Amino acid sequence: QVYVVFSEELKCWCRALVESIWCQADGYQLRCFLVDYAKHCSVPSENIRVLAGAFAKIPPRAKKCRLHCTKPLTLHIDYCENTAKIGPAKRWDAAAIQHFRKLLE
């Protein structure tokens, strides 16, 4: 379900999907995906509202997606043998993410 949350970063109300909720000393925090900005943000629980009326029927401008069958790779360097090979990695590194974003632009 899509809700409306107030984004401190954007200084406006945005449509969002709630991904997770956790408790803090001063209340609950929500991890949200902003469907019109393709951004993640954290908002306090008092900054969430139910989306009503015709606004609920507007399709989102951003969609979460993944690259099909694409696995992260990294450069493995063996200093003893003075070799470097590309091999599988557990996570995408920052340089690969930055390169991919530039390709998309």
Automatic annotation (TrEMBL):
Residues 3-68 form the Tudor domain. It catalyses: ATP + H2O = ADP + phosphate + H(+). The keyword Nucleotide-binding applies. Keywords: ATP-binding, Helicase, Hydrolase, Nucleotide-binding, Repeat. One of its GO terms (biological process) is germ-line stem cell division. The keyword Hydrolase applies. Its EC number is 3.6.4.13. It comes from the Eukaryota. SUPFAM superfamilies: Tudor/PWWP/MBT (SSF63748). One of its GO terms (molecular function) is ATP binding. This is RNA helicase. The lineage of its organism: Eukaryota, Metazoa, Chordata, Craniata, Vertebrata. The gene is Tdrd12.
